[in-house]
Amino acid sequence: MAKTIASKTQEEQWMVQNQVFRIYDLVYRLPPHAQSVKSFELRRDDHIEYLTRSLTQLGPNFTVLDANRPWLCYWIIHSIALLGDCVDDNLESDAIDFLRRCQDPNGGYGGGPGQMPHLATTYAAINALLTLGGHKSLSSINREKLYSFLLRMKDTSGGFRMHDGGEVDVRACYTAISVASVLNILDDKLIQNVGDYIISCQTYEGGISGEPGAEAHGGYTFCGLAAMVLINEVHRLDLPGLINWVVFRQGIECGFQGRTNKLVDGCYSFWQGGVAAIIQRLHLMIKDQLGLSSTFKFDCITESEDDSSDSDREKPMLEGLNNNGYNFIKGSKGMRPLFNSMALQQYILLCTQEEAGFRDKPGKRRDHYHTCYVLSGLSVCHHCNVKEAETPPLPKDVMGPYSNLLEPVHPLYNIVLDKYYEAHEFFARL
Fold first, then answer.
1. How confident is the prediction for the chain on average, in pLDDT?
2. pLDDT > 90: what percent of the chain?
3. Residue 298: its pLDDT value, please?
4. Of 62, 63, 166, 272, whose CB has the highest number of CB atoms within 10 Å?
């Protein structure tokens, strides 16, 4: 019999599995009291200190991220907000002033002052400013110029370019649509044929790729699904196929992978967890696509309540494209989560949490990107079993002490919910 030779991919997978299982084994050998108090505690104060310090000064090794400074602002400020805290007045003012200097005179935000505007850094800057909140922050955004920039990035394919002469992909579609939606400037010109482009990126696996013909990917699936909800065309996606793809991305390590046969990565706690959170509110469309009877009831959040199809239809809805995000979050969830929330929380708390900050997986180092998206995913876990967005979760839904509970996020924008409501109200008046 020929000798079987393991591939590089298999070797890396086995190595990660062994590292993860070794951590789980060590923890579960501890006495029950030590398990609950020590191992599963969110080190909130340490994380806040790490993040706040990072907002004031970063080391010379961060020079490689010179074109990503609005992202650093968003990752850090959003993480602090998720932890239930905020930056002090001086830091807030400094951040607003810095982001104002990143704003291009002709619209959009660059990676730093004087750099060319880019959809990714525009999305990061807007989300950071919305998270800071308040009149100074929100009024610093030049919406008229930003709308012109978004129109310039519009491609004949229906998609968007990331920057002038840049690539067209689903990420660009999402960042443009998300920004326009939350700023109350989304219109028919911007959404024209966006749905066609995103539909062309849904693959045979069910997930969504970055561009037509590429591989389904967790980040692009989130971007495509969220954008389709915001332009009110999500019914055009193959939702059962998308569900079939995403449910198999949670692996034996308890965390999510981004693509088929790839390693677990903490950031997909949000990219895939966020997809699952969005799908929970699309139960009526899923029912229609599956050809189920209108009387069919999904396994709902609370046993005492029936499927909310009738009550959802009776809820007052705000009219207009720019209210799709608001109407979405005000709707009820009609399905239980599509992933094992407690297993994912276990992976996050035991395998990605460091003394301060979060990492991709055991063996990797902490960074602000993973801190942001791991915490965002942990928030999704905490709130995935409540039917209404403002309802606090039960203690049984939060692994470890209830003091671990994070602020809820709006899953379409990844902004803390209170900050989203403030921004929605502010821009609705303009």
1. 94
2. 90
3. 63
4. 272
